[in-house]
Amino acid sequence: MTHNRLLATVILVVTVITAFAQPNSALAEMLAGRTALFNSANHPKSKGVVFTMKYPIGWKELEGDRPNVVKKMEYSDDMDMVIVMVITKTLPLSQDLSRSDIEDFLTTENFKTSIPNEGKYIDGIRTKIEGEPAGIIEYSMRAERAGIEMKTQVISLMFFQRNTMVQVHFNIGAVASQASVL
Hints:
Elements: H1 3-21, H2 24-31, E1 35-39, E2 52-56, E3 60-63, E4 69-76, E5 80-90, H3 99-105, H4 108-113, E6 120-129, E7 132-145, E8 148-161, E9 164-175
Antiparallel strand pairs: 1-2, 3-4, 4-5, 5-9, 6-7, 7-8, 8-9
Helix pairs in contact: 1-2
């Protein structure tokens, strides 16, 4: 998979998510080229996976706070919150995954088991990025933190490099009582 096409795919997904998830300012930033760039090369948590991702310049970039969370990009206002998380997981394999191995893994059953226990599976599809097999999973979940109940809709892009699974989670959340659009 070429680096440029992967970048273009991730930019497209971020642009589509921002179009539906938040005010037009983020979408306008993306379309006007006012973007920040995340590059996973040489990042200590990337596990050797290399790709770049553009996101709206107005979003906050944070280091991941868990072992497999490489980077987070966030936007929030009084009602809504958008978080993009880049996650890498090294698979316990003695050799790199083959194309056939990846295609065999990308099933509805594996999509359903890859979401959090409290998540409600909505859909999953197989797709390709640069001709390489990938998956897109959608699920929703509710969580309570500090006495506030949030409803979150998640679209997760999953692809593989060598023996590492990469997930880019696009989380759109709102206070549950205000989350009629999620």
